[in-house]
Amino acid sequence: MPKDFFGGISSVFKDKDMVQIDYVVDEDRIIGRDEELESLAQSLYPATNGSKPSNCLVYGKPGTGKSLSVKFITQKLKEKAGENGYSVGIAYVDCSQSSSETDAVIRIAKQLNDPDLSDVHIPDTGLSTGQFYQRAWKAMDAIHDISLIILDEIDKHHAYDDLLMTLSRAGEANKLTDSSLGVIGISNKPRFTDKLNERTVSSLGERRHVFPPYTANELKKILEARKDAFYDGVLEEGITARVAALSAREYGDARKAMDIFRYAGEIANENQSETVKDEFIDEAFERAERDEILEVISTLPHHSTLVIQSVAALAADRDTEKNPITTTEAYNLYQRKCSIEEASPLSERRVRDLLEEAEFLEIITRNTKAAGKAKGSRTIITLVDDPEKTLEACKLVEPND
Ligand SMILES: Nc1ncnc2c1ncn2[C@@H]1O[C@H](COP(=O)(O)OP(=O)(O)OP(=O)(O)O)[C@@H](O)[C@H]1O
Ligand SMILES: [Mg+2]
User: Fold this and answer.
1) What is the model's pTM?
2) SS (H, E, C) 155-218
């Protein structure tokens, strides 16, 4: 008889998708965001009648329901406008995954275009950024009355200023002639607009929407509304309350709650346990914490990981308040790591660029300190997260490891 590879595997999950971060739930499972959804609806309302909606900037700490709420409300808006006979196109860009302005414009153009309806072809490469914009405008005009462009994690895009500027000016200078455009930027950096060029801020003329953290009780309700991700009876008593309490420890973070909830189920499966037990929660919490660092580090090139690993190794070994880490020390250790791997090290100047990038991604911070009389100044590096957790995350992304 042929072997049944799947026969012996069982799972506590009935519908695991429901506890994945990107899953967009229905209204009855969205808890405690009524005010935020209503205020977004207010800003976007004109689009239901074919008019230009307000541009929006949505802020709030990680896991406060920004991405979910914006995806949900824009979908509802599209349906409502459709009932009124207007076509709304939605483009969603996760800016942390978009490498350049051109890349973002290609993603936007492809989502808003339909070659059967527009006669516009959007190639993968081969045009200038300006030409891609031209094609995007043409597709929008041909197909939609209103286009909504959601730029999620906008602060992580290297060209956010240019993108926002060009998109918010699309209505002028005959770029869009038969349609209008609304931009929704999402960020978990409250001071993000401080970084924007004044001209961008004024042409964006946006409405701001602030998402506060959840209470432990709201987190509990959010999880309870996803219980049917699991088979009946597999969740032990008190699991949702425990996960909610842990996720509210720093501040009410639904992303962390969802991650811990999902991991607790995965750990149950790994242990071939029929139920999700309280004792799995601590490990699930550890995995969720490690994930936060891993998510950022996994996007970096290998030499950046080596540099961060060097900083973390130095930080793990000493009291950095008293004895801070200098760029030179990090570079020396990085060189040693390269020689162990038999890789040729990058120049110190290039490593400084990588550190600048790591600072942009908020993995480290850098400060200039006076080094004492006649010694000039030196740059001090501080690791943002826990050194041990950072080292663990670096190990996980190492090639051939
Ligand atoms: N009010 C809510 N009701 C139900 N589920 C929620 C709610 N808020 C968040 N969630 C769930 O929690 C997880 C994180 O939410 P979301 O991705 O929207 O957060 P975010 O504010 O965009 O965070 P980040 O800044 O980290 O991207 C998702 O799985 C989402 O479905
Ligand atoms: Mg988000």
Assistant:
1) 0.86
2) HHCCCHHHHHHHHHCCCCCCCCCCCEEEEEEEECCCCHHHHCCHHHHHHHCCEEEEECCCCHHH
Residue among 15, 67, 289 to mutate when testing ligand 1 (max atoms within 8 A of CB): 67
Nearest ligand for residue 68 CA: 1
Task: Say which residue the tokens 């900083």 belong to.
Answer: 311
Question: pLDDT tens per residue, the chain (401 residues)?
Answer: 778 887 777 799 999 999 999 999 988 899 999 999 999 999 999 999 999 999 999 999 999 999 999 999 999 999 999 999 999 999 999 998 888 999 999 999 999 999 899 999 999 999 999 999 999 999 999 999 999 999 999 988 889 999 999 998 887 767 888 899 999 999 988 778 888 888 888 888 889 999 999 999 999 999 999 999 999 999 999 999 999 999 999 899 999 999 999 999 999 999 999 999 999 999 999 999 888 888 888 888 899 999 999 999 999 998 988 899 999 999 999 999 999 989 999 999 999 999 998 998 889 999 988 766 666 678 899 999 889 989 988 888 866 33
Token readout for 367 is 């400060």
For 138, which DSSP code? H
222 lines ligand 1 (CB under 6 A): yes
Q: Is the CB of 212 under 6 A from ligand 1?
A: no
214-296 CATH = 1.10.8.60
CB 303 within 8 A of CB 323: no
Q: Which of 181, 228, 236, 246 is nearest to 44 (CA)?
A: 181
Q: If residue 234 lies in a helix (H) or strand (E), which one and from where to where? A: none
Q: Which CATH number fits domain 300-397: 3.30.360.10, 1.25.40.20, 1.10.3720.10, 1.10.10.10?
A: 1.10.10.10
| Structural class in CATH, domain 33-211 | alpha beta
Distance from the CA of 47 to the center of ligand 2, in angstroms? 23
Domain ranges of the chain: 33-211, 214-296, 300-397
